[in-house]
Sequence to fold (243 residues):
Amino acid sequence: MSEYNDYLYPQKWLSKASTGDRVAYELRMRIISGLIESGTILSENKLAADFEVSRSPIREALRILASENIIRLEKMGAVVIGLSEKEIEEIYDVRLLIETFVFERLIKVDTTNLALELSKTLEMMKVAIKYNDADEFSYQDVMFHETIIRSIGHSYITMIWNNLKPVMEGLILLSMRMRFKEKYEDFTRIVKNHELYIDAIRAKDRELMIKSLHENFDDVQGKVEDLWRSQQMLSKGVEPQND
Fold:
Protein backbone atom coordinates (compact mmCIF):
# COMPACT_ATOMS: atom_id res chain seq x y z
CA MET A 1 0.00 0.00 0.00
CA SER A 2 2.53 2.51 -1.19
CA GLU A 3 0.60 5.74 -0.63
CA TYR A 4 -1.66 4.56 2.20
CA ASN A 5 0.73 2.96 4.71
CA ASP A 6 -0.28 5.49 7.36
CA TYR A 7 -4.00 5.21 7.96
CA LEU A 8 -6.08 8.11 9.18
CA TYR A 9 -9.13 5.98 9.96
CA PRO A 10 -8.69 3.61 12.96
CA GLN A 11 -8.20 0.14 11.52
CA LYS A 12 -9.47 -1.53 14.70
CA TRP A 13 -12.93 -0.13 13.91
CA LEU A 14 -13.06 -2.01 10.59
CA SER A 15 -12.92 -5.66 11.65
CA LYS A 16 -16.31 -6.43 10.07
CA ALA A 17 -16.14 -4.00 7.13
CA SER A 18 -16.03 -5.07 3.50
CA THR A 19 -12.98 -4.17 1.41
CA GLY A 20 -14.98 -1.46 -0.34
CA ASP A 21 -16.05 0.03 2.98
CA ARG A 22 -12.46 -0.02 4.23
CA VAL A 23 -11.33 1.96 1.20
CA ALA A 24 -14.26 4.36 1.55
CA TYR A 25 -13.53 5.06 5.22
CA GLU A 26 -9.88 5.85 4.52
CA LEU A 27 -10.55 7.97 1.44
CA ARG A 28 -13.28 9.86 3.29
CA MET A 29 -10.90 10.72 6.12
CA ARG A 30 -8.24 11.89 3.69
CA ILE A 31 -10.73 14.07 1.81
CA ILE A 32 -12.22 15.57 4.98
CA SER A 33 -8.75 16.23 6.41
CA GLY A 34 -7.63 17.95 3.21
CA LEU A 35 -4.83 15.48 2.49
CA ILE A 36 -6.70 14.74 -0.75
CA GLU A 37 -7.62 18.21 -1.97
CA SER A 38 -10.75 19.42 -3.71
CA GLY A 39 -10.36 19.03 -7.46
CA THR A 40 -8.10 15.98 -7.23
CA ILE A 41 -8.86 13.31 -9.83
CA LEU A 42 -9.12 9.82 -8.34
CA SER A 43 -8.19 7.06 -10.77
CA GLU A 44 -9.68 3.60 -10.22
CA ASN A 45 -6.48 1.95 -11.43
CA LYS A 46 -4.20 4.03 -9.21
CA LEU A 47 -6.44 3.57 -6.16
CA ALA A 48 -6.54 -0.17 -6.78
CA ALA A 49 -2.74 -0.23 -6.89
CA ASP A 50 -2.34 1.99 -3.82
CA PHE A 51 -4.77 -0.07 -1.73
CA GLU A 52 -3.60 -3.36 -3.26
CA VAL A 53 -7.15 -4.44 -4.15
CA SER A 54 -9.10 -5.06 -7.34
CA ARG A 55 -11.10 -2.32 -9.05
CA SER A 56 -14.41 -3.74 -7.81
CA PRO A 57 -14.07 -2.56 -4.16
CA ILE A 58 -12.66 0.73 -5.44
CA ARG A 59 -15.84 1.27 -7.47
CA GLU A 60 -17.89 0.37 -4.39
CA ALA A 61 -15.98 2.90 -2.29
CA LEU A 62 -16.38 5.64 -4.90
CA ARG A 63 -20.12 5.02 -5.13
CA ILE A 64 -20.40 5.39 -1.35
CA LEU A 65 -18.47 8.67 -1.34
CA ALA A 66 -20.46 9.98 -4.32
CA SER A 67 -23.68 9.34 -2.38
CA GLU A 68 -22.27 11.61 0.35
CA ASN A 69 -21.54 14.31 -2.26
CA ILE A 70 -17.85 14.58 -1.40
CA ILE A 71 -16.77 13.25 -4.80
CA ARG A 72 -18.28 13.35 -8.30
CA LEU A 73 -18.13 10.15 -10.34
CA GLU A 74 -16.46 10.27 -13.75
CA LYS A 75 -15.97 7.61 -16.44
CA MET A 76 -12.91 5.91 -14.95
CA GLY A 77 -12.76 7.40 -11.47
CA ALA A 78 -13.94 10.51 -9.67
CA VAL A 79 -13.24 14.17 -8.93
CA VAL A 80 -12.97 15.23 -5.29
CA ILE A 81 -15.51 17.85 -4.20
CA GLY A 82 -14.66 17.88 -0.50
CA LEU A 83 -16.50 19.74 2.26
CA SER A 84 -16.89 23.49 2.57
CA GLU A 85 -17.11 25.32 5.90
CA LYS A 86 -20.79 25.99 5.16
CA GLU A 87 -21.47 22.28 4.58
CA ILE A 88 -19.80 21.36 7.87
CA GLU A 89 -22.00 23.87 9.68
CA GLU A 90 -25.05 22.38 7.93
CA ILE A 91 -24.08 18.91 9.12
CA TYR A 92 -24.15 20.18 12.69
CA ASP A 93 -27.49 21.88 11.96
CA VAL A 94 -28.94 18.48 11.04
CA ARG A 95 -27.50 16.91 14.19
CA LEU A 96 -29.11 19.64 16.27
CA LEU A 97 -32.47 19.10 14.57
CA ILE A 98 -32.28 15.34 15.12
CA GLU A 99 -31.36 15.52 18.78
CA THR A 100 -33.92 18.25 19.49
CA PHE A 101 -36.62 16.00 18.00
CA VAL A 102 -35.38 12.99 19.96
CA PHE A 103 -35.31 14.91 23.25
CA GLU A 104 -38.95 15.92 22.76
CA ARG A 105 -39.87 12.23 22.38
CA LEU A 106 -37.87 11.25 25.46
CA ILE A 107 -40.00 13.49 27.65
CA LYS A 108 -42.88 11.05 27.07
CA VAL A 109 -41.09 7.78 27.90
CA ASP A 110 -39.21 6.11 30.75
CA THR A 111 -35.57 7.20 30.44
CA THR A 112 -34.11 5.35 33.44
CA ASN A 113 -32.29 2.67 31.46
CA LEU A 114 -31.14 5.14 28.84
CA ALA A 115 -29.59 7.39 31.49
CA LEU A 116 -27.76 4.39 32.97
CA GLU A 117 -26.44 3.33 29.56
CA LEU A 118 -25.25 6.86 28.80
CA SER A 119 -23.53 7.06 32.19
CA LYS A 120 -21.56 3.90 31.35
CA THR A 121 -20.53 5.38 28.01
CA LEU A 122 -19.45 8.60 29.68
CA GLU A 123 -17.25 6.60 32.05
CA MET A 124 -15.56 5.06 29.00
CA MET A 125 -15.02 8.57 27.64
CA LYS A 126 -13.35 9.56 30.91
CA VAL A 127 -11.06 6.52 30.72
CA ALA A 128 -10.09 7.51 27.17
CA ILE A 129 -9.23 11.01 28.41
CA LYS A 130 -7.12 9.55 31.22
CA TYR A 131 -5.12 7.45 28.77
CA ASN A 132 -4.92 10.21 26.14
CA ASP A 133 -6.73 8.07 23.56
CA ALA A 134 -8.36 10.44 21.08
CA ASP A 135 -9.71 7.66 18.86
CA GLU A 136 -11.39 5.79 21.71
CA PHE A 137 -12.84 9.03 23.04
CA SER A 138 -14.23 9.82 19.59
CA TYR A 139 -15.75 6.34 19.30
CA GLN A 140 -17.46 6.60 22.68
CA ASP A 141 -18.62 10.16 21.94
CA VAL A 142 -20.32 9.03 18.72
CA MET A 143 -21.85 6.06 20.58
CA PHE A 144 -23.15 8.39 23.29
CA HIS A 145 -25.16 10.43 20.81
CA GLU A 146 -26.14 7.43 18.70
CA THR A 147 -27.55 5.73 21.81
CA ILE A 148 -29.76 8.76 22.43
CA ILE A 149 -30.92 8.90 18.82
CA ARG A 150 -31.68 5.17 18.54
CA SER A 151 -33.48 5.09 21.90
CA ILE A 152 -36.79 6.33 20.48
CA GLY A 153 -36.95 3.61 17.80
CA HIS A 154 -37.76 6.04 14.98
CA SER A 155 -36.76 4.33 11.72
CA TYR A 156 -36.53 7.46 9.57
CA ILE A 157 -34.58 9.45 12.15
CA THR A 158 -32.22 6.47 12.39
CA MET A 159 -31.89 6.43 8.60
CA ILE A 160 -30.95 10.13 8.54
CA TRP A 161 -28.43 9.55 11.31
CA ASN A 162 -26.88 6.58 9.49
CA ASN A 163 -26.44 8.73 6.38
CA LEU A 164 -24.90 11.54 8.42
CA LYS A 165 -22.69 9.38 10.65
CA PRO A 166 -19.69 8.55 8.40
CA VAL A 167 -18.81 12.18 7.66
CA MET A 168 -19.70 13.27 11.20
CA GLU A 169 -17.45 10.56 12.60
CA GLY A 170 -14.56 11.80 10.49
CA LEU A 171 -15.08 15.38 11.65
CA ILE A 172 -15.16 14.28 15.29
CA LEU A 173 -12.01 12.17 14.91
CA LEU A 174 -10.05 15.07 13.42
CA SER A 175 -11.33 17.53 15.99
CA MET A 176 -10.63 15.28 18.99
CA ARG A 177 -7.15 14.34 17.81
CA MET A 178 -6.34 18.03 17.57
CA ARG A 179 -7.85 18.77 20.99
CA PHE A 180 -5.90 15.99 22.72
CA LYS A 181 -2.72 17.55 21.35
CA GLU A 182 -3.49 21.24 21.74
CA LYS A 183 -6.55 21.71 24.00
CA TYR A 184 -6.42 18.82 26.49
CA GLU A 185 -7.81 21.02 29.27
CA ASP A 186 -10.99 21.44 27.22
CA PHE A 187 -12.14 17.91 28.07
CA THR A 188 -13.24 18.92 31.57
CA ARG A 189 -15.89 21.12 29.98
CA ILE A 190 -16.79 18.47 27.37
CA VAL A 191 -17.42 15.89 30.11
CA LYS A 192 -19.60 18.38 32.01
CA ASN A 193 -21.63 18.99 28.83
CA HIS A 194 -22.31 15.26 28.52
CA GLU A 195 -23.20 15.01 32.21
CA LEU A 196 -25.75 17.74 31.58
CA TYR A 197 -27.20 15.65 28.74
CA ILE A 198 -27.69 12.74 31.12
CA ASP A 199 -29.23 14.93 33.83
CA ALA A 200 -31.67 16.40 31.30
CA ILE A 201 -32.69 12.96 30.04
CA ARG A 202 -33.04 11.53 33.54
CA ALA A 203 -35.12 14.46 34.76
CA LYS A 204 -37.06 14.79 31.48
CA ASP A 205 -36.72 18.52 31.95
CA ARG A 206 -37.36 20.39 28.70
CA GLU A 207 -35.51 23.55 29.74
CA LEU A 208 -32.51 21.52 30.91
CA MET A 209 -32.60 19.58 27.64
CA ILE A 210 -32.49 22.80 25.64
CA LYS A 211 -29.59 24.04 27.78
CA SER A 212 -27.68 20.79 27.33
CA LEU A 213 -28.19 20.88 23.56
CA HIS A 214 -26.96 24.43 23.23
CA GLU A 215 -23.98 23.96 25.53
CA ASN A 216 -22.93 20.99 23.40
CA PHE A 217 -23.65 22.38 19.95
CA ASP A 218 -22.62 25.98 20.56
CA ASP A 219 -19.18 24.49 21.12
CA VAL A 220 -18.98 23.31 17.51
CA GLN A 221 -21.61 25.24 15.57
CA GLY A 222 -19.87 27.93 13.58
CA LYS A 223 -16.49 27.02 15.07
CA VAL A 224 -14.99 24.81 12.42
CA GLU A 225 -11.55 26.40 12.72
CA ASP A 226 -10.62 23.37 14.82
CA LEU A 227 -11.11 21.22 11.74
CA TRP A 228 -9.07 23.50 9.52
CA ARG A 229 -6.26 23.51 12.08
CA SER A 230 -6.44 19.71 12.13
CA GLN A 231 -6.13 19.70 8.35
CA GLN A 232 -3.05 21.90 8.49
CA MET A 233 -1.49 19.67 11.13
CA LEU A 234 -2.24 16.52 9.17
CA SER A 235 -0.98 18.00 5.93
CA LYS A 236 2.45 18.35 7.52
CA GLY A 237 2.59 14.62 8.19
CA VAL A 238 0.15 11.79 8.80
CA GLU A 239 0.52 9.92 12.04
CA PRO A 240 0.02 6.15 11.75
CA GLN A 241 -3.27 4.79 13.08
CA ASN A 242 -2.44 1.09 12.79
CA ASP A 243 -3.42 -0.09 16.28
Confidence is low (pLDDT under 50) at residues 221-243. The first strand starts at residue 41 and ends at 43. The chain has ten helices and three strands. The first helix runs from residue 19 to 33.
